[in-house]
Amino acid sequence: MSEPLIRAEGVTKVFRQGELEVHALRGVDLTVGVGEFSALAGPSGCGKTTLLNLIGALDEPSGGVLSVAGQDVTQLARGDAADFRLDHVGFVFQAYNLVPVLTAYENAEFTLLLRGASREERRTVVEPLLERVGLGGLFERKPHELSGGQQQRVAVVRALATSPSIVLADEPTANLDSTASAGLLDLMLELNQELGTTFLFATHDELVLERAKRVVRMLDGRVDEDIWD
Questions:
Q1: Rounded to two decimals, what is the model's pTM?
Q2: To 10 degrees, the CA torsion angle through 107, 181, 212, 73?
Q3: What angle (nearest 5°) sits at the alpha carbon of residue 111, between those of residues 39 and 208?
Q4: What tens digit of pLDDT does each residue of 130-154 get?
Q5: Which one of 25, 73, 100, 210 is least enclosed by Cβ atoms within 10 Å?
Q6: Contacts for 115 with CB less than 8 Å, ≥ 6 apart
Q7: In sequence order, what are the beta bridge partners of 168?
């Protein structure tokens, strides 16, 4: 049996606000395999975004074991965590997080630029992906010239451009209407199936949960239910 892409054992996260301690995660056990299209679900404050941030090495757990793509992310120094994210993780956020002064193409190639890829290498990867997500004629548009759904498609291309081990999507449909949400999610599912890229969502959106092959429901910082389609 192959090693899971994500392995969490007894993961905890405590936020301290003065003398107050907030226990966001309380001993989470979870494994995620390569190629999954899965979602973390649950009410606000249940810990799903916190767990996603730990998996993406955006934050450090307070305790437990957490490995991602064979790397113990609990032991990464800040610079090493940045390199790990660049090499292994693609992010799609609720607010798109595109650079306003860059074109759609420049935003899509940004992570490849950070990795030192040549202009030709970037073009070879980014142009087909932008075409694939329906943005073929919009390379030179700035974010403000794109719809919300189009901006989020640029963000998906940026996330996929480095061929990451996993794409982490935190409420990616929250700012989209139902039509744009459905189109984006269908596209992400197609890319998951075509490229074999693992997707893990944190979401409230029933449109996401309907498409996910696995839904991990969280409550009060713990895994409450693990449902496979």
A1: 0.96
A2: 30
A3: 15
A4: 999 999 999 999 999 999 999 999 9
A5: 100
A6: 86, 87, 162
A7: 91, 200
